[in-house]
Amino acid sequence: MKKLLVLMSFLPLFIGCKEVKKKQQTVEQVVEQEAPKKEVPFVWEGANIYFVLTDRFNNGNPDNDVNFDRTEETGVLRGFEGGDILGVTQKIEDGYFTDLGINAIWLTPLVEQVHGATDEGTGNTYAYHGYWAKDWTALDPNFGTRKDLENLVKVAHAKGIRILLDVVLNHTGPVTDKDPVWPEDWVRTGPTCEFTTYENTTACTLVENLPDILTESDENVELPDALLAKWKEEGRLSKELDELQLFFERTGYPRAPRYYIIKWLTDYINDFGVDGFRVDTVKHVNENAWEDLHKEANYAFEAWKRKHENYILDDNPFYLVGEVYNYGISTGRDFDFGDKKVDFFNYGFKSLINFELKTDADKNYETIFKKYSRLLHTKLKDKSVLNYLTSHDDGSPYDKERKKPYRAANVLLLTPGASQVYYGDETARSLIIEGTQGDATLRSFMNWEELDSIPKIQKVHKHWQKLGQFRRNHPAVGAGKHKRLAKSPYVFSRTYDTGDYRDKVVVGLDLPKGRKSLWVKGFFGDGTKLFDTYSETEVTVANGKVILENDFDIALLELVE
Fold first, then answer.
1. Are residues 343 and 383 in the same domain?
2. Residue 362 within any structural domain of the chain
3. Do 303 and 385 belong together in one domain?
4. Is omega for the bond preceding 191 within 30 degrees of 0, making it cis?
5. Annotated active-site positions, please?
6. pTM above 0.90, yes or no
7. 515 and 445 share a domain?
8. Domain count, the chain
9. Tens digits of residue pLDDT in 386-423
């Protein structure tokens, strides 16, 4: 306080003194260049998120590969393959994600799945993907145990990696010979959605034999007899009922279907400290349900933080990213159902998955980057999108034949917004698997053997690592403002400034081999020392440019600390 009073006493001397103002600006410039770099803040707007299909990534515990007598022969890639929570944890511990520049991992749903198989003309299919819930209060033993999940979150947090769980509120699993339909006051079994109006997108079943939760209902319902019997057999009936009683007493919600499931989903936040949800089938649920989920998720996250003060990573609120199928960034905030528009960002979502980047990806870089930067800092200010090029259920991904893995990395990891790396993007894992039908071709097991043995794959992987680490280390890449500095060779800048933290980077793309000159005038002053993290070369700005000499067609420039 004394220091502040002393400084205030000198303020009149500075007023109107142009020379002093000039000196102050000079000092500020020097401080900007010489001040030690602050710890890099994590911002969801520029996150680098790795999307894992849990069953297809890494088998950490072969002893849990078969449960509930799921032994029927299946169609190609339509059964459980052995990937589990422990397998993901092992790769976190090994530094795989750290080396890839990943700062958040999205896991497909882990809750207990239907026990039986379905056959919709594609051969028997088990719920290996996690989207066919049977019991939201339990983890599926094929994926692992509660202890496994608790340990995964702890290990990830120790590495500065956030965990997102994929959650489903829209539907139960399908009806099978082992899995009866839920009561009619819980679900509808028809009609099938037509996707032409709000009602025939929300009050319907997504596909045949996928019972739709009556999320719009506020009517009290009893728990299904099958679920009560299951809990009783497992010795946890009274515990589950007591917890539900406390939840409904605290919130005052009716005992309607959506509130039961919201309680069960948010328990994973309260119990394990997961950092966010990727929300499935958002547009198929009445939007007020997401507002309810967001409210209870925040409550659970704050409760977890109070109990685990030493494990809090930062002050970011709980994160919700939604899958509004076919939403594109150009839409802005409103999604059009045909007869009604809904702004899902108003119902708790920080971000929506952007289905548009794959169609933009072959445009010139400046067209893509300028468009995304403009939209994210105008229509979508304070919100974000999660960009992707391939995924688990997009049958028309970018570069399906994996002929352009370097281009894919450049577009995905350098486009403003958050990035979704689908497992195997970084290793050119094949998306065309012989004998598969439908989405199964997108879901082969992670190609670890190819990464270990094929130099071409290793080279691709190294490129993704370099770009990923640069993105993680610099919030400016995903969350900052974009500006072109030079057209040929193409050079651009990104700036991220919160007042407390400032980040500035320059990137060059499509650069010539050998000696190259990158124009940085007006962004980095002469004499500024920069480091090209791609070629691992230190350079100094002179005459408004830096000179690099290597055979790389990319440069990733940051200030030397």
1. yes
2. yes
3. yes
4. yes
5. 280, 323
6. yes
7. no
8. 2
9. 999 999 999 999 999 999 999 999 999 999 999 999 99
